[in-house]
Structure formats: structure tokens, C-alpha cells
Specification:
About 20% of the residues lie in helices and about 30% in strands. It contains 7 helices and 19 strands. α1 crosses α2, α1 packs across α6 and α6 packs parallel to α7. The protein is an alpha/beta fold. It is globular. The longest helix has 14 residues. The two termini are about 15 Å apart. Strands 10, 11, 12, 13, 14, 17, 18 and 19 form an 8-stranded mixed beta sheet that branches. Strands 2-3-8-4-5 form a 5-stranded mixed beta sheet, with helices on one face. A two-stranded antiparallel ribbon has the order 1-9.
């Protein structure tokens, strides 16, 4: 298994503008380089105090339709697609600032965020990269919906969706990717979020999804896909669930070595899985690939170094 032993961040700052999925309003986004060991930190500039929250499973708030981070007073929603881009490109440290309560939805995938990060440039830092290695299986949920992490020499993602709907019957229900940056960019990053027209109309009535459109989601009615261009890949539905899972899993605070399988799981179950992992220290180790690296104090229960 080939492993990059150093932490990485952005080379330059970069800005972008997009639409918030729920408010329908313009959101300004700024990505900045982060210092070694700082992780991914999200900030809001639209509040009258300093909102700054580290991207971590224990800081997750609402998980209805998206993953949000909370400081106990306010939240920042729809972080999972950008988190997936950071995970996919190996970004350990960065600052993310927006002037709204949600990140821009862009085209509903992680591809625009990949473009932003690559445009900003990626630079190695003088600090060892940390990995969370699964040592024991951990599972949450039940027969109708579950997510699990198992030990594995590498990182692989598998997702199975199951909708009793004629459109989904025509497309692959399961997607599996043995993870690397190339596989992420080619197979996962372009997969868009999807939803049902009936649900979209109900959300509109509740003053939600005001920014939703065929430009940033795959929309399905009772019998067909409404997007004129159709799907980008045959298994785009399942691939987007992999994208969401990748973003959610990066909230462990470290790159992951293990095997993920989700069955009809979503953000809530994904977060429950991470919290269960972190609550069971025997299920994982935190390691680095340098003999003199220092494991963060919160994880100094069993230090394993691979030279």
C-alpha cells in the first residue's frame, strides 16, 4: 500500500460564489491554507461573533438532508461535498469561510470544489500525516438501514441503495470503489445529489430548497429522470451516496484506513457510526508513517508507527 506520509494544505487562497440550496441566495466562499495539525476549520462571516468550528464528528449538528456543524449557537450546513473533495485530494488542513448558514450547492457534486482546490494548488507541509486505522468492526443501524466500518489494508467504499421506484430499478443499486485520488476524481467527484420531484415541491412549500434546480440536482418524478442530459454515469445515484459517505467519514479528523459499507444509510447513520467508533478506542489505532511522529494527546492510548 502506497501512503503519502506528509500533511497537505492549499498553496493559495481561492474564492468562489454559488447558490445556497435551501435559501436560494448567493453564498460567497473563501478557502485558505491551514497550519499543520489544524485540520479543516469552518467559519461564518455573516454573524456578529466569531463562528469557528473544526470539522469533526463530535461537532455535527443537524443531519436532515445534509451534514451540518454547530458551535452550540448556530450551524453551518451542507459541508459534505467540500469535505469529500478535501478527503479525495488529501487536504489535511484548510480554513473555509462563508457568509451564510450553508455552503453553496454548486452543481450538486464535489467536482466544482475539486476544481477550486486544484486551482489553488496543493502543497506538502512539514508535519506527518495521521491515519485512523480500523482494528475491529463497528456497525450501527438495523436490517433496513445500516453503516459499518471494518479493518482493511487500504480504504474502500461500498454503498447499496434500495428504492421501490421504476427509475432506480433501471440503474445499478450498488457502487464500490477502492479508493485513491484518481478513482475519486474519475468515479466519485462528479456524482450529483438527487431527489424526487414530489419531495422537492413539499420542501418549497416549507420555504426550503429555494435554490434547488435541475442545474444542481438529479430530479426524478414518478417514472423518469427530468434532467435533459440524464445521468453522468449509470450508477450516479449510488456513487453520490459514496461521495456523501466520504465527506462524512472525513469528520473522523484523520484519513481512514478501513472498509466502509452503507446500506440505505444517510448522514445521520454515518455520524452515529463515527461517534460509535470514537467511543470505542479498541476499535481503532491512530498511526503515522514516520518513526518520530507524535500522536495527538487525545489518541495516545496505543501508538503504532510504521517506518
Amino acid at each position: 500500500m502506497s501512503v503519502n506520509a506528509q500533511q497537505h494544505t492549499l498553496k493559495h487562497c481561492i474564492r468562489a460564489t454559488g447558490v445556497g440550496l435551501h435559501t436560494g441566495k448567493q453564498v460567497n466562499l473563501l478557502l485558505r491554507p491551514g497550519t499543520p495539525d489544524s485540520g479543516i476549520v469552518f467559519k461564518r462571516s455573516d454573524l456578529d461573533y466569531k463562528f469557528s468550528v473544526k470539522a469533526h464528528a463530535m461537532n455535527v449538528g443537524n443531519t436532515t438532508m445534509a451534514t451540518s456543524l454547530t458551535d452550540g449557537r448556530n450551524e453551518l450546513s451542507t459541508i459534505e461535498h467540500l469535505m469529500a473533495a478535501f478527503a479525495g485530494l488529501g487536504i489535511d488542513n484548510a480554513e473555509v469561510e462563508v457568509d451564510a448558514a450553508e455552503l453553496p450547492i454548486m452543481d450538486g457534486s464535489a467536482a466544482p470544489f475539486v476544481f477550486l482546490i486544484q486551482s489553488a494548488g496543493i502543497v506538502a507541509q512539514n508535519a506527518p500525516k495521521m491515519f485512523l486505522v480500523m482494528r475491529e468492526p463497528v456497525r450501527v443501524g438495523n436490517e433496513s438501514a445500516y453503516a459499518e466500518l471494518q479493518p482493511y489494508d487500504g480504504f474502500t467504499l461500498k454503498y447499496t441503495l434500495d428504492y421501490d421506484h421504476p427509475v432506480f430499478a433501471l440503474h445499478d443499486h450498488t457502487a464500490e470503489v477502492d479508493f485513491c485520488t484518481t478513482a475519486f476524481i474519475k468515479e466519485i467527484s462528479r456524482a450529483r445529489t438527487f431527489g424526487f420531484l414530489a419531495d422537492y415541491e413539499k420542501l418549497k412549500d416549507l420555504n426550503l430548497a429555494q435554490g434547488g434546480s435541475l442545474d444542481n440536482a438529479v430530479v426524478v418524478d414518478d417514472s423518469r429522470i427530468l434532467n435533459e442530459e440524464g445521468l453522468r454515469v449509470r450508477d450516479e445515484f449510488a456513487k453520490h451516496k459514496l461521495l456523501d459517505a466520504l465527506g462524512d467519514l472525513y469528520l473522523l479528523g484523520f484519513s481512514l484506513l478501513g472498509r466502509f459499507h452503507g446500506y440505505r444509510s444517510g448522514h445521520s447513520i454515518n455520524n452515529a457510526l463515527l461517534r460509535k467508533v470514537l467511543a470505542n478506542p479498541s476499535s481503532f489505532d491512530v498511526i503515522c508513517y514516520e518513526s518520530d511522529c507524535a500522536v495527538p494527546p487525545a489518541y495516545q492510548r496505543k501508538i503504532t508507527t510504521l517506518v
